[in-house]
Backbone:
């Protein structure tokens, strides 16, 4: 990893790492990770790399790791995908987490998203974040806001961004979470904004809070939040038995993208959906070329993303129930573990209707964690994809 | 020697204040061009250093845009008011003229002012041919 290289043309590279195709550069202005070819790296002043003698379809490391540092959480949301509650004896010590963070930095990771459970339930959470900065990683965090105080909010300047989980702007959050979490999240958000910390919110979408999306966007806009990340309801943890009754209805799934596009045009808050929503985006048939170029991609597990469990196990995605091994060995396991290969190679063995879909290489079959949980088959197509639903209906009709 | 190319952009990332969106899809740009949803083909611009913009700008055209001789360019809309208006940013304005996007600078300036967005450039980026001349 190379750091702080100036550039005579005005922009600058904060950090960069080599890849077989050239490299990934972390650009300061505008803020972006650019995947560039070998010639581009030469133009930036980087020397030839042995990696350039290789042809590899796999990145040298993830660009982002979701690091869950505890399973402890005081909120006990009924849809928690981690089944969080009490901490476990197997959770890593401060020093072990630092070793893991160090191994991520050595591998070339750019960003770490701390999560849990409730990460601030660990007294060393800020120490871990500061260590991330020390080794050149940008730490971000997702919190429910339960432990937020004015003092803690001030300390949160160490993070690149703090996202507070909030599943609706008002009452409906109770129907999602099983308790009234709005007041907790709202208080945290206001404290963070009071300290001018870059802040957003995460919202797990269900059929019950779907109609309240505009209210949440308006609320976020009023508070000056930078973004809302809408997360799909995943059948894992405590959410597993609730999946069928809480996931978006097929109609809501088809309407989601037009709804968000309409709202995005009226607000300064950036609206995101997680990569599991890709089938609900591509069913609207956007031009695939710019989508690919701008990384508007389906499942990025094992591509730019990896996860680490509170016990320090490395996996392709934080929703994934199995793992590749100890996260401290990320540099080795990223390339050697079949755990990642099955995510990366999913399109190679895609069944119909994905196989003949022109979005296969960017949609990547939607969310494999959802598919495996619902069908017991990791290779199955995403059951919420409208195209998959139509295909199954047609096949059923034809006997 | 051929000029270097950008192969892929993760625009969501901010090196100092990441938006935590490595695994997410950002509708801020999708709004403008991927679905052609912005007023029948609005154009916005991605961001990068002048040297990148000095390479040819990547262009994508949707059917309706092509008929109107407009280009749908790769772009990124940030919510920071870095550019109060095109007139105040001569370098950017020059780039826009060079691109000859078919979109009037005054339109863009109004968009920047009314929506309080930052509009910067990106390109070229992909193997797709520049369709400016079509």
Residues:
């Amino acid at each position: 990893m190379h750091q702080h290289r100036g550039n005579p043309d005005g922009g600058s590279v904060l950090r960069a790492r080599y890849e077989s195709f050239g490299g990934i550069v972390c650009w300061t202005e505008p803020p972006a990770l650019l995947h560039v070819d070998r010639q581009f790296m030469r133009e930036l002043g980087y020397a030839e790399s042995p990696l350039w003698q290789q042809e590899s379809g796999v990145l040298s490391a993830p660009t982002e790791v979701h690091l869950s540092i505890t399973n402890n959480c005081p909120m006990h949301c009924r849809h928690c995908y981690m089944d969080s509650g009490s901490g476990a004896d197997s959770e890593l010590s401060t020093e072990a987490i630092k070793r893991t963070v160090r191994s991520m930095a050595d591998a070339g990771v750019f960003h770490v998203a701390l999560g849990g459970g409730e990460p601030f339930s660990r007294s060393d959470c800020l120490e871990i974040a500061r260590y991330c900065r020390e080794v050149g990683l940008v730490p971000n965090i997702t919190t429910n806001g339960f432990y937020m105080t004015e003092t803690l909010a001030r300390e949160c300047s160490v993070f690149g961004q703090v996202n507070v989980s909030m599943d609706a702007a008002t009452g409906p959050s109770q129907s999602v979470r099983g308790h009234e979490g709005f007041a907790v999240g709202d208080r945290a958000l206001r404290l963070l904004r009071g300290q001018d910390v870059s802040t957003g919110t995460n919202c797990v979408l269900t059929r019950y809070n779907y109609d309240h999306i505009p209210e949440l966007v308006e609320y976020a806009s009023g508070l000056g939040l930078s973004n809302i990340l809408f997360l799909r309801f995943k059948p894992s943890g405590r959410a597993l038995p609730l999946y069928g009754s809480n996931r978006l209805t097929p109609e809501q799934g088809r309407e989601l993208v037009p709804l968000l596009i309409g709202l995005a045009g009226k607000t300064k808050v950036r609206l995101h959906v997680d990569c599991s929503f890709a089938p609900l985006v591509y069913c609207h048939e956007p031009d695939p070329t710019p989508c690919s170029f701008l990384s508007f991609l389906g499942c990025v597990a094992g591509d730019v993303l990896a996860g680490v469990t509170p016990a320090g196990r490395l996996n392709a995605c934080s929703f994934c129930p199995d793992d590749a091994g100890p996260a401290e060995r990320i540099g080795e396991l990223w390339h050697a573990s079949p755990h990642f290969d099955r995510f990366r190679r999913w399109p190679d063995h895609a069944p119909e209707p994905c196989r003949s879909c022109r979005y296969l290489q960017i949609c990547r079959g939607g969310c494999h964690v959802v598919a495996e949980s619902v069908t017991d088959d990791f290779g199955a197509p995403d059951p919420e994809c409208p195209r998959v639903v139509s295909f199954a209906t047609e096949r059923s009709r034809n006997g | 020697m051929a000029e270097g190319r950008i192969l892929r952009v993760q625009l969501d990332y901010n090196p100092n204040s990441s938006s935590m969106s490595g695994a997410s899809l950002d509708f801020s740009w999708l709004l403008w061009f991927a679905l052609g949803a912005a007023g029948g083909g609005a154009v916005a611009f991605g961001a990068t250093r002048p040297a990148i913009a000095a390479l040819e700008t990547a262009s994508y055209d949707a059917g309706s845009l092509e008929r109107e001789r407009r280009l749908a360019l790769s772009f990124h809309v940030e919510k920071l008011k870095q550019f109060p208006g095109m007139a105040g940013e001569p370098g950017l304005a020059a780039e826009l003229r060079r691109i000859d996007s078919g979109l009037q600078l005054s339109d863009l300036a109004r968009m920047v002012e009314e929506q309080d967005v930052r509009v910067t450039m990106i390109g070229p980026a992909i193997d797709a041919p520049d369709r400016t001349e079509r």
Observations:
- Residues 105-115 of chain B form the longest helix (11 residues).
